[in-house]
Specification:
Its EC number is 2.7.1.170. With 394 residues, this protein is of the alpha/beta class. The protein is built from twelve helices and 13 strands. 35% of the residues lie in helices and 24% in strands. α2 runs parallel beside α3 and α7 packs across α9.
Length: 394
Amino acid sequence: MRWWRVVGLLSGTSMDGIDVAVADLRLDGESIELRPLGEETCHYPTDLREELRLALPPGDLDAEALCRLDTRVGQAFADAARTGAELAGGSADFVASLGQTLFHWVDGGQARGTLQIGQPAWIAEATGLPVISDLRARDVAAAGHGAPLAGVLDALWLAGDDSQGTQVALNIGGIANITVVGGSRPLAYDTGPGNALIDLAAQQRTGRPQDTDGALAATGTVHGDLLKLLLADEYYRLPAPKSTGKEHFGSAYLTRVLQELGEPVSDGDLLATLTELTARTIADACRAEGAGRVVVAGGGVHNPVLLTALRRSLDVPVLVSDELGMPADSKEALLTALLGFLTWHGLPGNTPGTTGAVGPRILGSITPGATGLRLPEPATTQPRRLIMRSAATN
């Protein structure tokens, strides 16, 4: 029952930088204990962030450009891993990396492939630590969506609290996703855009990468006809499990909808409408799942206009995950650490009922560190709950 110190890394669909979280984890029978030790965000250089943005559909990326981008992102992840090693006091056991999703191929409602860049060899070379990466592909190969993988953390973390009825764990990143805990079946899926369209519109209209604090949205009013066009997208009516990304809710999509509208929309009204779209589609999904409580994490928690709209659209408590001991800003990086920890111990990292996979699978690939690879004996008991500990807890 030793503690393992893990560095978790990922860059979400917002593509603003690399989230780093360090945590101690250990197995204790049917429980996993997780003790967060520190977090940091390492922002991409401006030119690299722009290259990533331009690589998204409808951008055209040839093999040479993809190789260069994969290398540069891998080197940025290596720098972030060094930061993680410092947060770990130089005593990390391994690194888990979800990389940077560049494309998520969905056809006919089924995920056919997924591409995360950020070569793990750069991380292993920079830190000397083993690296667990490519954590989505095996789930896709097993007929799952490879996303959202947060279902495994949420199902363990919120398990056993029957007093709350059906709980929904919500993450608002570039894409918003939910995990339903305590319902009639395990379920997780992407509800649609989180910050993706909001960030895109802010970039196009103001040159800034986001609508900080919802300030621009707060100056506008919701444009009813535009919202109606946005809500008509067929994605919202697809059955779960399902997944999406910026390859769907991207610049071509927003341009097409505004052309269909056929009239100019002010900056404030556009941001107010896109913010309402995110809140409305999340709330619709939560109501459809019979949510008795919604627990929110991700970058969207810092947008008060979005949170106000979400609370207005729901008649159940909406809490930020920090209130229950889970850091909202680092939850996905902690998820990455947890996924790596499960793989390290020979345990499945997917929850088939949430991703749609045909069965549980051990996820990812392992890149050895500087001193070879020594894995622990595979665990024989499947964990059933996650216990959050404070850093001061032994």
